[in-house]
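[agent] plan:
  1. take the single chain provided in the ticket
  2. run structure prediction with default settings
  3. attach structure tokens to the ticket
  4. add a short note for the reviewer (M.T.)
[agent] executing step 1
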Amino acid sequence: MVGPPSNSASPVSVPWKMGYAALATLLLTLWIGLNRMTEDQTGVRFQKGMETWRSRQGRWGLPPGYWSGQEPSPEPTAAAPSPKEEGDPKELAAKHRAQLAGFVADIGLRFKSEKKPRVLGQFVIDVLDPIAATKPHLLPSHHEALVPAIPFFKEKIYRISVITWATSPGTSAWLRAQQNAQKIAAELLEVAGSSSKAELQVFAQPWAHTDQVRPAFSLVLAKVATVSAPQE
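[agent] step 2 finished; step 3 output follows
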């Protein structure tokens, strides 16, 4: 019996096979992702994986036009770098300062902002031991590491920042890190005494260095310019 020519070699002859395989793969990936999210995440690795997933969006699966027999579209190319501005360096610097001033003014309409003195230099003390869950939160090992920094609390020309590093970029971990930073700052002020004059700030941030050990918290001591110091 003679029939129409076979077209079994064409990839579109049985499209349901490819569609079912893609669906099964997607469901398996979703299940693995949900299963991994129920475990304790180290934050940075999870964030890095999400960044990889975002960068691959639009690239997985079959290329556009596969089922219609069209040629796949070429891979998008990177945008050309913006041309370098030419002109008088002083005029360009004035233009950039005006743009920055406009940006700061727009931010000031939405948030309270103020100009901070220029930082002349700074150094950082990283503390690896975690703080205690109950008061006192700072352990003897913490005091030993932070003793050299206590005299700087009595100098007005220093800005001191307590930074705790969240275990993940999630809201709960970030809030817990902020609370720990406030506890550390309060105990440091108790040690420094009533003569403390330095500006004290508290921050919570995620740790982005995958090749380095994440500290429990860091103390940043920055020397700032006084009013009489020349400003650039």
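[agent] step 4 note for reviewer: The helical segments are 15-37, 44-55, 89-110, 140-146, 171-192.
[agent] ticket updated
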